[in-house]
């Protein structure tokens, strides 16, 4: 265990505020798929089937629900084109761009800990 010296311990108010901030963020970004879907759509607008093919393992039912939740919270927008059949394109909003640093940090963390994560997954399956 690493001992940190000369670093003050945050006060109760700061810790409580940080916890509330994290809980607020998790409230709108909860679940296994939301950040992956945002990352997919930040790269480029896509149709439903393109998203489902890119985000491996998500069912159609769950994808539809998650897209509705993300649209409700202004992370994505759904554009409907009056073609035959109707074309629907999902795209990230500017609000999704505010998660760029979070997604980059999660990606870096996942890469750094990939072997440990794989080992943990094998142990728990």
UniProtKB/TrEMBL annotation:
It holds the Pfam family HxlR. One of its GO terms (molecular function) is DNA binding. The keyword Oxidoreductase does not apply. Keywords: DNA-binding, Transcription, Transcription regulation. Gene3D superfamilies: Winged helix-like DNA-binding domain superfamily/Winged helix DNA-binding domain. Residues 15-118 form the HTH hxlR-type domain. This is Transcriptional regulator. It comes from Pedobacter paludis.
């Amino acid at each position: 265990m690493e001992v940190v010296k000369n670093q003050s311990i945050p006060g109760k108010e700061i810790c409580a505020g940080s916890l509330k901030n994290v809980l607020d963020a998790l409230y709108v970004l909860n679940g296994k798929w939301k950040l992956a879907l945002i990352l997919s759509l930040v790269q480029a607008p896509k149709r439903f089937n393109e998203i489902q093919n890119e985000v491996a393992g998500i069912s159609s039912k769950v994808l539809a629900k998650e897209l509705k939740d993300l649209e409700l919270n202004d992370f994505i927008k759904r554009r409907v084109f009056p073609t035959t059949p109707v074309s629907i394109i999902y795209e990230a909003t500017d609000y999704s761009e505010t998660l760029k640093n979070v997604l980059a940090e999660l990606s870096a963390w996942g890469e750094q800990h990939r072997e440990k994560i794989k080992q943990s997954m094998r142990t728990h399956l």
